[in-house]
Design brief:
This protein has 226 residues and is α/β, with parallel strands linked by helices. The chain has ten helices and seven strands. β2, α4 and β3 form a beta-alpha-beta unit. Bound molecules: S-adenosylmethionine.
């Protein structure tokens, strides 16, 4: 069964209260590496899609402007509380918004990040297309995610879990090769992160010349996601 917005909202309503305890520590190293690789400069405008409970917010330098969006009101509410607790309200804006259909103008941000979101969002290629649209041409895209394991045992388990995607709220079998083919990301680097390097940080340069929509064959990706 495929993921949709309602399934995601339902899952994260369930996960929200225990999210930091369950996924705070185990995913921490990946978030830290991503923010370091962003090489943020004073005044940079950063967009984080699927910001969740805002675990990454304290990692950003004080002289950048951060916009965080998420589909789940319950996750976002926790991010808002974190922001208030850390006194970050003046430089962080949080909004309830679908990252696959954002209301921001083209080229609004210097750097755009998605941490552990691509396996969760209903149409990953559409997500990347939107990230590319709102990022400045030549800006940077950062995607941190788990992709299907090449290990035959782990890969087998992931395939077995695949039919439970809707219930789990994420896709256990998510192929890096297919993702790269569908999104046509202009990769700068890929860095294995977290436990056993089981997750991957992708850093891509946003295209200078053409909108991502022309680069990715979305008709095919939408059909595959169905
Ligand atoms: C696994 S959590 C990751 C949260 C956070 N980035 C972190 O590092 O812990 C995935 C988050 O992405 C959000 N999400 C999934 N699809 C989304 C979409 N299309 N637009 C906005 N948020 C989305 C979910 O609501 C959830 O909060």
């Amino acid at each position: 069964m495929t993921l949709d917005i309602e399934a995601i909202r339902k899952s994260y309503k369930r996960y929200a209260a225990g999210y930091d305890l369950l996924f705070g520590g185990v995913f921490h190293a990946g978030r830290t590496t991503l923010v370091q690789r962003m090489d943020l400069q004073p005044g940079d405008r950063v967009l984080e899609v699927g910001v969740g409970t805002g675990l990454s917010l304290p990692m950003y330098p004080a002289d950048v402007e951060i916009v965080g969006i998420d589909l789940s009101p319950e996750m976002l509410e926790r991010a808002e509380r974190r922001c208030r607790r850390l006194g970050m309200q003046s430089r962080v804006r949080l909004e309830l918004m679908d990252a696959e259909d954002m209301s921001f103008d083209d080229a609004s941000f210097d750097k755009v990040a998605a941490m552990y979101v691509a396996t969760v969002s209903p149409r990953p290629a559409r997500l990347i297309e939107e990230m590319g649209r709102v990022c400045k041409p030549g800006g940077d895209l950062f995607i941190l995610n788990h992709f299907s394991s090449a290990n035959p045992v782990l890969g087998g388990i992931e395939r077995l879990l695949a039919p439970l995607s809707r219930r789990l709220g994420w896709r256990p079998d998510f192929s890096l090769e297919e993702f790269l083919w569908e999104t046509r990301l202009d990769l700068v680097e890929r860095i294995p992160v977290n436990l056993f390097g089981y997750w991957m940080l992708l850093h891509a340069r946003n295209r200078m010349d053409m909108p991502m929509s022309m680069a990715a064959p979305l008709s095919q990706t939408a059909a595959r996601a169905e």
